[in-house]
Design goal:
heterodimer; A: 598 residues; mainly alpha; 27 helices; 8 strands; B: 449 residues; alpha/beta; 9-stranded mixed sheet; 17 strands; globular
Chain lengths: 598, 449
């Protein structure tokens, strides 16, 4: 039964005119709108606290089978190290390992906010937790997708209108994030058809088209890309001539049976296969591979790429007439279906679990991304018949047996001793040759220069207290995106060849020492810049220096460093303190330690 | 075949080549041997003279020491610049004018350039297979078509790689560099061109934005606090044999304080000289290029963009030509007056030419089959024209090469340029992909000498 109104109320209601009530509503609406507007602006412009908002779902341990595989890799590598009589570096501290993981997966070190968050966990869980956290972070997949995009379509802008690089990168990142088996991703690329906007994988093919290609993707370039990016086989020289330099070998057996058998438990040191005859590469090997791509045409922009009759002719060296070339693969021909569309047959052969070159190529690329240096150099040239470095086949076998799971591969590599070793040895290293020998056996974590985009992103992130990730405001993300692009262009993008180590140049040093990119980020700015905020908010000189080191180098300062920089901050106040802290940031950012992975 | 990376000890043969040194010693030895009749000192001086004369005779043939590339990004029209065909179906609105070389006409858009054509060599028959800006730029700057396995070095990088100088400023400079400046490619980013903007503006990143004392403190802390901590327990001579980070910092600091930096400052030139190059960034870039060459810089690239005239070809090309004309004339004149032209090669051209056919928007499209490049200075035959393009209309479907007489491939142009510097372009280097590769795959264009 509804409550009854007291007798006085009807009279109050009756006396109140309807007009003031409407005005009151309007005012309330106006206030709510203004409040909403203010909140909206604040939301859009301010970085929000975001780290740890999904930490409940982040695991602190890997599944045991990953540790088992990593231990097999360790045993194989340790046997090699012991066999050569080399010393092993001690395990690195968790901060160093976390920085390496960050640089490998998202392209920059940890933000101060992230470092503080990871510190909350027990020390033994931190490195693994941080890897798992990054594997849930979209930044990881965007970054990995960019690396794979460079490997598969390069860095050129590509043909106008029919190439959409951004869509291609996003497509790749989506699949990496979803955990799509990598073999399926590669099959989609090789077999792609349709429009480059509706089916972004088509851009793998359209990237090779140009005016002179007569509406057909360039089969030669696609053959080169496919063999290098997916199989780590550099057979491009065969385009023009036979392999008279002895650089390209393919396994050959009379019956064409499988040579690459699975490695048995405890057999991880075996790197040489028996019962094998090799042959050198022939010019036909390249062109037969290219012929798979010869039946793709672009007749209509609305329909996009479609299959047509393959038609591939070539004039071989020392011949005068064209030869019609039939699609064929250079080795393990029994793995390729005999029927079906040529590109489908090729895709099945490339990604076949028994075609170990596919898994080895992927492992080598992921190893390079995480270490800054591949297991086999150059990155896209692994001899098809070995010998292979210890650990490569163990990782490759695990990768193919577990559904070509990229995330599992990352976890396994991060779990190895090689990844967790210090970059310093306890012995006195007197020559470059000695150091190289230790690095080549992974007895010590290799020193590698950061790539240009890593330098740019690391500087930007170091100069912001909060992590800039998917949940950051759009302005923060735009600032990072634009800044990194501009800096990378000025610094000199390495293009497709990004894992080739190059010396730092004078213009590069000048850019970091005197350029606006760094000066804008370390100047006195209490709203944006970490240096100023630390200068203003840190309780003591000591904690200010420690925070500066954490933000930039992801480590605590040594006693000598602490004393030196506390001296610089001593008796500084306000603006002069902010400037002094800016100078400390400048010094740390300009150091070898900041600009190298170690 | 030689390794890719030059030794760091600076003992390589450079400008003072071992071959010349031996010849001088030999002649000097001959003078000593016959020294009975005349005093030794006198014969020594004669021998010196003879040896220098002998060297200079060789060097007259291959005298180039520096290269200035006037890079016309976008594709200048050969028909509106160096290869006009007025009053023909393909000629458009462009008229031809007589030059200082008898019988040679160029477009009326370049009246000042016409006055110095007796100092230039003109190639009117360049051909390539690249019709896309990016790929054609790569092709023209490196002498190689783009290759997915390898990034080739630009010609300036190759010249720097094959020579050695002791200067405090970069030896390879790109002024007004656009989207695709010259790169070191597989020879390493150390040979990338140092990029600058309009010479009227201060050089980028060369001045510290802090007070001198603050900068000194920063450098002190960097070297003595942070770097020394990083070096601890690592490879001895970590910087020297591995990272080169500290030494690059030192070289950058040296450059910041170097007097040679003044070479970039055209305000130090008389105002009349500055004005003769034209009041625009390209003209100033050309003047800065001369100053840099004087200082010992090996290769300077100055870019003039905006030649991509798919629409309103004549007016667009004429506007660009006006800028080029004044600067190119002044550049050749100044190089000559300063005694640098014989040892400096000037190359002026773009990535391709433009179609003989004028499209519906009064524009011309990309044409890599018969376009022009001007060379001047160095050992080239002055007042010479190589090649020819037909004034006839080439019907669609016919091979456009049929309209080109004495075609010159891009790689041949590169081989010829490298030869002009005395560089053996057939020399193979070990590339990062494990494949030995010659510096150029072309052949020398003998008729240019």
């Amino acid at each position: 039964m509804p409550p009854t109104l007291p007798p006085v109320l009807p009279s109050i209601v009756a006396e109140a005119s309807p007009r003031p009530v409407r005005r009151w509503h309007k005012r309330l609406l106006l206030v709510v709108l203004c409040f909403g507007l203010v909140l909206g602006i604040a939301w859009a412009t301010s970085p929000r606290v975001k780290l740890l908002h999904n930490t409940e779902s982040v695991a602190s341990r890997f599944e045991s089978s990953i540790h088992t595989v990593a231990e097999q890799v360790d045993r194989a590598m340790n046997a090699e190290i012991a066999g050569r009589g080399l010393a092993k570096a001690n395990p690195a501290d968790w901060r160093t390992v976390a920085r390496r993981t960050s640089l490998g997966l998202i392209g920059n070190g940890l933000s101060l906010e992230e470092s503080r968050a990871v510190e909350q966990l027990p020390e033994e869980q931190r490195a693994i937790w941080w890897t798992e956290y990054l594997l849930k972070d979209r930044r990881t997949y965007d970054y990995l997708a960019e690396r794979w995009t460079r490997a598969t379509v390069g860095t050129n802008n590509g043909p106008f209108l029919i190439f959409r690089r951004r869509k291609y990168v996003d497509w790749m990142a989506d699949h990496f994030e979803k955990g799509t088996p990598y073999d399926r991703v590669v099959r989609d690329l090789i077999e792609a058809k349709g429009s480059w906007t509706d089916s972004p994988q088509v851009n793998f093919l359209t990237a090779t088209m140009d005016d002179a290609d007569n509406k057909k993707p360039d089969a030669i370039r696609l053959a080169g890309r496919t063999s290098r990016a997916f199989l780590a086989q550099r057979i491009d020289c065969l385009q023009c001539h036979e392999d008279y330099l002895g650089k390209v070998h393919f396994p050959e057996t009379p019956s064409g049976e499988l040579l690459d058998g699975a490695i048995e438990e405890g057999d991880e040191e075996q790197t040489d296969r028996t019962n094998r005859t090799d042959r050198t590469g022939q010019q036909a090997d390249f062109h037969q591979l290219a012929a798979f791509f010869s039946g793709v045409r672009l007749d209509n922009a609305f329909v996009g790429l479609r299959n047509s009759q393959p038609d591939y002719k070539v004039t071989y060296l020392h011949q005068e007439k064209d030869t019609s070339v039939v699609p064929q693969v250079p080795y393990l021909r029994n793995l390729m279906p005999t029927q079906g569309d040529p590109r489908h047959r090729l895709a099945v052969w490339v990604t076949h679990p028994e075609n170990q070159a596919f898994a080895r190529a992927t492992v080598n690329r992921m190893w390079a991304i995480l270490f800054g240096k591949p297991l086999v150099e150059p990155l896209d040239s692994i001899p098809i018949a070995g010998p292979f470095p210890p650990g490569l086949d163990i990782l490759a076998d695990d990768f193919s047996k577990n559904g070509f799971d990229i995330k599992r591969l990352i976890r396994t590599i991060v779990c190895t001793e090689a990844f967790r070793r210090d970059s310093r040895l306890d012995i006195d290293i007197t020559s470059e040759a000695v150091e190289k020998e230790h690095e080549n056996c992974w007895a010590v974590f290799p020193l590698t220069p950061l790539r240009p985009e890593q330098v740019a992103a690391s500087i930007h992130q170091a100069c912001r207290l909060h992590a800039i990730d998917e949940s950051s405001s759009i302005l923060s993300k735009l600032e990072l995106f634009g800044g990194v692009n501009d800096f990378t262009k000025a610094y000199g993008d390495q293009g497709d060849d990004e894992f080739t180590q190059q010396s730092v140049t004078i213009p590069q040093r000048l850019l970091v020492m005197n350029g606006a990119y760094v000066s804008e980020r370390i100047k006195n700015n209490p709203v944006m810049n970490a240096a100023t905020r630390i200068a203003l908010l840190a309780a003591t000189d000591k904690s200010a220096v420690e925070l500066a080191y954490m933000a930039t180098l992801n480590r605590m300062p040594s006693g000598v460093e602490l004393n030196a920089f506390c001296e610089r901050l001593h008796d500084t106040r306000g603006k002069s303190r902010a400037q002094a802290m800016g100078s400390i940031f400048w010094t740390l950012i300009n150091s070898t330690e900041f600009q190298w992975n170690h | 075949m030689e390794p890719l990376i030059a030794g760091r000890d600076g003992n390589e043969p450079g400008c003072h080549s071992l071959r010349n040194f031996q010849r001088r010693r030999f002649l000097r030895g001959g003078a000593y041997a016959t020294g009975g009749l005349l005093s030794q000192g006198m014969l020594t001086r004669i021998a010196e003279r003879l040896s220098i004369a002998s060297e200079s005779k060789d060097n007259d043939k291959l005298a180039a020491k520096s290269l200035i590339i006037l890079w016309m990004q976008g594709g200048p029209s050969q028909l509106e610049t160096f290869d006009p065909h007025p009053d023909t179906k393909i000629g458009g609105e462009t008229k031809a004018i007589q030059t200082s070389v008898s019988g040679l006409q160029i477009a009326s858009t370049l009246p000042r350039t016409a006055e110095i054509m007796h100092r230039a060599t003109l190639i009117r028959s360049l051909v390539s297979k690249e019709g896309d800006h990016e790929r054609a730029t790569y092709n023209m700057k490196t002498g190689w078509r783009p290759d997915p396995t390898l990034v080739h070095p630009a010609i300036g990088s190759v010249i720097c790689h094959q020579t050695q100088d002791n200067i405090e400023i970069p030896r390879h400079v790109s002024i007004l560099s656009g989207q695709w400046p010259s790169r070191g490619g597989y020879m390493g980013s150390v040979l990338d061109a140092f990029q600058t903007g309009d010479p009227k503006d201060p050089l980028p990143n060369l001045k510290s934005y802090t007070e001198k004392k603050v900068f000194e403190n920063r450098m002190h802390d960097l070297k003595n606090v942070v770097e020394s901590e990083f070096r601890r327990g690592r490879l001895r001579e970590l910087d020297k044999v591995k990272t080169l980070h500290e030494s690059s910092t030192d070289r950058a600091t040296t450059m910041m304080a170097s007097e040679q930096i003044k070479a970039f400052d055209i305000a130090l030139e008389p105002s009349g000289v500055v004005a003769s190059f034209g009041d625009n960034s390209f003209g100033r870039g050309c003047l800065a290029a001369i100053r840099l060459i004087e200082q010992g810089v090996r290769c300077v690239e100055v870019e003039l963009s905006g030649w991509d005239s798919h629409v309103q070809n004549y007016s667009l090309q004429s506007g660009r030509c006006a800028i080029l004309d004044a600067a190119l004339h002044a550049l050749i004149q100044q190089l000559d007056q300063r005694g640098l032209l014989h040892q400096t090669i000037v190359m002026c051209g773009g990535e391709f030419g433009r179609t003989p056919k004028i499209n519906v928007a009064d524009g011309r499209d990309h044409w890599p089959t018969g376009f022009s490049t001007l060379l001047a200075g160095g050992p080239f035959r002055a007042g010479h024209v190589h090649g020819e393009t037909t004034p006839e209309w080439i019907e669609t479907g016919k091979d456009p090469l049929l309209g080109v007489k004495d075609p010159v491939k891009i790689e041949d142009l590169h081989a010829t340029l490298l030869h002009s510097f005395g560089i053996d372009f057939s020399k193979e280097l070990q590339t990062p992909i494990g494949r030995p590769l010659a510096l150029s795959s072309g052949s020398i264009i003998r008729s240019l000498f």
